[in-house]
Write a structure and sequence with these properties.
Blueprint: H1 2-30, H2 32-40
Helix pairs in contact: 1-2
Amino acid sequence: MMVTSYHLGGITIINLYRVILLINLTVHFTTNDGFVILSSV
């Protein structure tokens, strides 16, 4: 199941991860509180 899901949505998952990471970095430099809240979600 994990292999199939990764094969079908691998590119989407990678792109989503990059977007989340970018948002985390942006919010981190904007406000530490927002970074902590976003990271816990």
